[in-house]
Specification:
The chain has 222 residues and is an alpha+beta fold. The chain has one domain: Jelly Rolls (Sandwich), CATH 2.60.120.10. The protein has five helices and nine strands. Strands 1, 2, 3, 4, 5, 6, 7, 8 and 9 form a nine-stranded antiparallel beta sheet that branches. Strand 5 and strand 6 form a beta hairpin. Helix 1 packs antiparallel against helix 2, helix 1 packs antiparallel against helix 4 and helix 3 runs antiparallel to helix 4. The protein is globular, with a radius of gyration of 16 Å. The protein starts with 12 loop residues before the first helix and ends with a strand.
Length: 222
């Protein structure tokens, strides 16, 4: 079972949450050193969030998908000295203290979306209800169970993704599918259609919205 954050002989919950935030910010800082849209969005997040603030302690909420698949995804985060592994290790220590839920941004009731919602969970790190507050940035974790298709969808928000654990196939627009693994990152411009397909492993990501935080997620039906 993913780690409970309150137990004898362990660090206080506040300190464990701060360790997660620090690992999260370090990942963005490393991304910001490079060029392109991913670096730009990472710098925007670094500049518009008070990362040094004391973390909020959200009302904890577990999700069946995290209970079943989070530990596996975290243990498939790549090399032990990578930023993805640092984030995954920190996440495991506090996962039971986060507010995990099915995504509420997609309002499609098609059978593929209903199946996705049962097999997909998110937790906000920065933004409304997250560990840190911001009105300019929203970012958090998503966990997608194995063998689950996230159909093509789009939103007004500019979005960056960082692969933390597991692997999957990804598609942006009409371009061919491509494989992703820990350490990879993907940028979606506003309204870019994108889809994700997990295979034998769950997929753990960090997603980052840096514009139009109120956007709904619209399923794109051909």
């Amino acid at each position: 079972m993913p780690g409970c954050i309150v137990s004898a002989g362990r660090e206080p919950a506040h300190d464990l949450m701060k360790r997660l935030i620090d690992a999260y910010a370090k990942l963005f800082a490393e991304t910001a050193e490079f060029g392109g849209d991913l670096a730009r969005t990472a710098r925007f997040a670094l500049e518009n969030v008070h990362w040094e603030d004391s973390p909020n302690m959200p009302e904890a909420s577990r999700h069946p998908i995290t209970d079943e698949h989070l530990e596996t995804a975290c243990k498939r985060s790549g090399s032990k000295d990578s930023s993805a592994t640092a984030v995954a290790d920190a996440l495991l220590t506090v996962s039971d203290g986060l507010h995990w839920r099915s995504s509420s941004k997609c309002h499609d009731d098609g059978p593929d979306i209903v199946r996705l919602q049962r097999n997909f969970a998110v937790a906000i790190v920065v933004g409304e209800g997250g560990l840190l507050s911001s009105d300019k940035v929203c970012t958090g974790f998503s966990l997608q169970a194995p063998d689950i298709y996230y159909p093509p969808h789009a939103h007004r928000a500019e979005e960056s993704y960082f692969i933390i654990g597991g692997d999957a196939d990804w598609r942006v627009g009409a371009k061919p599918w491509f494989a992703v693994e820990p350490g990879d990152s993907i940028y979606h411009e506003p309204w870019a259609r994108h889809a994700m397909q997990t295979n034998g492993q769950p997929l753990l990501t960090i997603w980052l919205w840096t514009s139009h935080l109120e956007s709904d997620v619209l399923t794109v039906r051909d």
